[in-house]
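Thanks for the sequence, V.! I ran ABC transporter substrate-binding protein right away. Repeating your input here for the record:
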Amino acid sequence: MMFRASLFRSIAVCCTALVLAACGGTGAGTGTGPGGDPVAGGTAQILQISEPRTLDPVALGNQWVINAVLGNALYGTLMVNNPDSGAIEYSMATGFATRDGGATFDLTLRPDLRFSDGTPLDAAAVKFNWDRFADPANGSSYIEDAAVIAATEVVNPATLRVKMRHPVPHFAYTIVESSMNWIASPQALQPGRAAFDGNPVGAGPFTLQRWARQDVIELVKNPQYWDAPKPYLDRIELRTSGDSVQGYNTLISGGSDVIISSNWGSIEKLENQGFPTAVSPLHGGQHLSMNMRRAPFDDIRARRAVAAALDVNALNLTIYNGSGELPTTLFRESSPYYAPDLPLHTHDPATAQRLFDELAAEGKPVKFTYTTTAQTENRLLAESVQAQLSAFDNVEVEVRVIDIIDLIKLRYTHDFDVMTGGAFFDDPEPRLGTAFHGDSSRNTAGIDDASLNEALDTGRTSTDAEQRKVAYRTVQERLIDLMPAIFYTRTVAGAATGKNVGGLTMYGAGSVRPEELWIAE
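Predicted structure:
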């Protein structure tokens, strides 16, 4: 069972936010900015979406909505994916090669890499960090990613051999889209997380000067950074706001130089006003996850009824003023797995009402609670779902607003009826499997279907392009037939900068690279 990791399961922190759709006219991960060569110096005011609870890379999230720019600043990257082609490119690593179809890999590093405390960033340091991800005590949201590693072996200071529990030929994408891409100093980690938070040590382009929780994280240029003359900035002041309107306003008023955004409407307005923007156009998207473990959604008719009743175009209009891109299919046209004949959603009010009535006649009227957070987009979505379903008989929806930390816990305790989820990715491995495989602890809906599991396993392990294509077609068919989730918007991670800021570059799931940023004089 490819996703079984019972020895490694724990309550882990992950946060999936409502996000924006494709941004026409911008590069897929690179923003335009002032012309000319990069300029050295200056301080960038950056507005992120969430405050970290620790600076330990094991517990940070490498997504645009979860501390990606901070992790990249402190720790740099082993590798990235090209935002246009998707190809893996190397930075602190020089290779991640497999000769046996993904059963083993050799990670090779640049020679003479040093952490900011002077200790070596070598194969032993990577081993120390990656081994920590598999320990439930560390509370990593990427524990299942690390759990597919059977063993790590230091071959020499520049080479780490990674043996997998089963072949995972596309494991490089797992590293790119997780905080396994960030390596911290083992010496600094050993005294414990509290001490590390006061003095986090990495080999990234910046080091921590001050962290005033709930206020500002001040970073300064790392003079020992391996890729001189980067970083171009002298300082970064990182603040947090989950309010997309506030982010938009601070950028246009000059209060911020860079904002990380989870709101398509804000990104579109900024682009139309000539502000540089960047997006990571990912496949999949955001969805309403219906808990199949209990009533009413343990009955497939209830899931199909809600799916048929909801008009995702109307949701798009309410949340994004009609600007969002609807995920009509699981994969974009650019993907080899794109299947235009397999639409994710069909709005059919008559069928919805028939199913609601049928369930009510059996004494099972559809009644559920939509659990969400107070973030603007999350609340609007929940209220819009409630309003749409109020037009039908024999269905009742209650909206419950809770703190984001409590919402995160529900993803693992499964004490919910409906909540927002997501399955967004460049390559479908591993995120599609962790979202919907029956053996995944991050399978929010609780779907467990033999055909779906087998297809996801094949997609994960196969090196044959046609075999993967067949497998992911089966995945799409089973998700449409069983309807564990209702995809309502395409996920495209976004950021925007002031008009005098250059070098806006992303990788993975909207992970901004701060070493590339510069401010024109």
